[in-house]
Amino acid sequence: MNLAAAALQDAHVRLEPLAEPHREGLRAAAEADQEIWSVYPYSMAGEHFAPYWERTQKAMAKGLVLAHAVLRGDAVVGVSCYFPDPPNNATEIGGTYFRPDVRGGAVNPACKRLMMIHAFDSGATRVTFRVDALNARSRAAVLKLGAVQEGILRADRVTWTGRVRDTVIFSVLKNEWPAVRERLDARLDAFA
């Protein structure tokens, strides 16, 4: 697998490798929903944004994460990341956040479709999604993408609030991708 950061675009969204020009737009997007952070392993709101930004930039520099600003028009509406696992030809797509006003529309399926196309075209045989068991909206969104729920890792992670979360694991395998892509294409056509 040779997964690299890349600009990705379709009729609904544009993904760009996360960089300094996206900082303030992402900060504003993160401030748009103060309640969501309780079901994230970290917060990007308020005083938590600067440490998030620095941590992400350092991880990107080491190749541990490939973070993408998600833009609709010229506005940063969120972020989504790859966590590549090259020895296993796999990647996780995660670290995703979208402003509340773009949830439930074309942004998430378009973003994930672009990211999965890029991952599978780069040699991935597996794309994984990890979601907090309490995050019902994200769990439903991942299932709606066409991913398969594999199981729940109990007491998997300590979140920024100190809560110990259970993590639901989903995946799409390379041989499943054509059918998943077809469903996503049809779903996105409905937004056109």
From TrEMBL:
The N-acetyltransferase domain, residue ranges: 13-147
GO molecular function: acyltransferase activity, transferring groups other than amino-acyl groups
Superkingdom field: Bacteria
Identification of the protein by name: N-acetyltransferase domain-containing protein
